[in-house]
Fold this sequence. Notes:
With 239 residues, the chain is α/β, with parallel strands linked by helices. It is 40% helix and 16% strand. It is built from seven helices and seven strands; from the N terminus they run E-H-E-E-H-E-H-E-H-E-H-H-H-E. The chain has helices spanning 18-29, 57-71, 96-117, 143-162, 181-186, 191-198, 209-221, and strands at 8-13, 33-38, 48-51, 76-81, 126-130, 169-175, 228-232. Strands 3-2-1-4-5-6-7 form a seven-stranded parallel sheet, sandwiched between helices. The longest helix is centred in the middle third of the chain and has 22 residues, at 96-117. The protein is globular, with a radius of gyration of 17 Å. The protein starts with 7 loop residues before the first strand and ends in a 7-residue tail after the last strand.
Amino acid sequence: IPRENSMTIAIITGASVGIGEATARAFQDGGYEVVNLSRRLCDVPGVHNLPCDLADPDSISDTIDALLSRVSGLSEISLIHNASQMRKDSADDCDDLSLRSVLETNVVAVNRLTRALLPGMGPGSSVLYVGSTLAEKAVPGTFSYVVSKHAQLGMMRATCQDLMGSGIHTAMICPGFTDTQMLRNHLGNDEALLQQIGSMNSFGRLIEPEEIAGVLYWAHRNPVINGSVLHANLGQRES
Length: 239
């Protein structure tokens, strides 16, 4: 990737669709360089695409090498861990290989990218996690996803403690039911079920990806929320 003179950059995993794509637009509109790390291209004009399979350690190694040549010496970086695998499984039907695959993307890749990039992140930088309401609760049929999101929450809180005094802050933004392809696929593109899910908050609709993107942009620019969990769910009804 060609190095530019900008001193502000947002590195977003999974910025090709949904919340990630909307976040790429938000940061680019705010004057940041944006780099997308995913297997698919981000179509937002001006975004730098680095092909990366977060489930493949070799692919991540190549990506890290390319990133380090770009971010060295930059003063402000927002690293946004957005990409996740979400599978239908349960405690009595989740084999070890499937669980390892989910954790490879949702936890191990997050750790590798953060560890590699932290030395190049100066004061004003952030490490942000796109979590879920399932980072602090659980529902049936999403066992590996729930496990991984609880793990990400622990990573965020531990990272906050380990980075004390560095000028780098962290937070987890937990969307409610957001109108993304991942949610639609998980629900079998059942429009009636999507409407039912969307009615489970005080506004009676699904959240738009752009709304979560706005929270992420705000979270990067406001270190006062360091170590916080921010629920962005339109006031989700609790069962």
